Fold this sequence. Notes:
This protein has helices at residues 4-14, 71-80, 92-104, 117-132, 172-176, 186-195, 221-231, 251-256, 282-285, 304-317, 322-343, 369-373, 377-389, 410-427, and strands at 38-42, 45-48, 53-56, 110-114, 136-141, 153-154, 164-165, 178-182, 200-205, 235-239, 262-265, 276-280, 349-353, 356-360, 392-393, 402-403. By secondary structure, it is α/β, with parallel strands linked by helices.
Amino acid sequence: MRVKKSEALYEAASKLLVGGVDSPVRAYLAVGGTPPFIRNAKGARIYDEDGNQYLDYVCSWGALILGSSHPKVVSAIQRRLPKGTSYGAPTRLETELARLVTSAFPSIEKLRFVNSGTEATMSAIRLARAYTNREKVLKFEGCYHGHVDSLLVKGGSGMATLSTPDSAGVTEAEAENTLIAPYNDLEVVEACFESSEEEIAAVIVEPIAGNMGLIPPRPGFLEGLRSITRKHRSLLIFDEVISGFRVALGGAQQLYRIEADLTCLGKIIGGGLPVGAYGGRGEIMKLVAPEGPVYQAGTLAGNPLAMTAGITTIEELLKKGFYEALERTSLEFQNGLLKAAKTERVPLRLNRVGSMVGLFFTDQEVFDYSSAKSTDTGRYSAFFHFMLDSGIYLPPSPFETIFLSSAHTAADVTRTVRAAAQAFGKTTK
Length: 429
């Protein structure tokens, strides 16, 4: 595999960009090696500056559910581009996309578009605190909600405790108002509310955790969160930046039939362009400026190009049979890898919800951050590089999620499974 151009580009980038990248995971520190610099992409394939071709299972971290450069999305952006890239003023496109989002998510009566998932979660937390007149927030270990100060914290083992900052620059004061509980553990959540009665403004959770690998909620977990937050008059915030529109048109809320008080969205609703959103019941959202005292603003929010890409993407998702076809492809992917691993006697656990897959080298159940951390990450690194050399582009970290798109075909899955079978044989200890 040719890598000279990517190596030279990475060296040049490292002199000007922090770590040579604009998002840490891209630096390949978790798996080693030099990241390929991508030149272009089409469908389920991406191409690097050295001319190497890869089957893409990152899909811009889940955003590209239609695959790269989908003809209808590209055409819609091209038609819109000559009309201007940004106005800092309202357009009908914002209303059109908002109508599509609220139709898919009944729990969202009103929403506000922002520019990223981080902006969405940050704003939702601020709004929850204003609505409840409380300061503390409960989050779950291993769930990532963007680089918001109050959410960049880690918890101790056992019972939930007040957390310490997990990033330099985050103050102790910010961390003190954040409680941590293990994902899928309702007992600790109950204990948090008992010890912090009338202090917790909200519980924020990835209803399907996608930032410690893919970890689904155990039966009753989300229902329990809904019951506990209602009991204590706290808000339930679903961070569906990843799961929204990916596991179902109405995200995890449709899949598990649970409505959140506030929902954070991103990725897919921008069709590959930067966008996020947060929304919920009208009585909560009316507190956001200019209707209420919770200030939040953004010059590029509701950007016409992002709105256009989002509208076009969701229109494709609405077509009959879209999710059923994607489910069939994803199931073939899962079954193929499991069969190959069994043949090679490789301990492998695959967690899957729809087109989201978590791959863990272990024979134990992976259901929270601790169990994810106990898996064989060294084997994942070896597997990753073998697959990369075979033209299969997987997430460059054992704690990220694999994504499939509607552009992936049965032939693509067959090729991937064959490469994985070879990789399992080569990396067996």
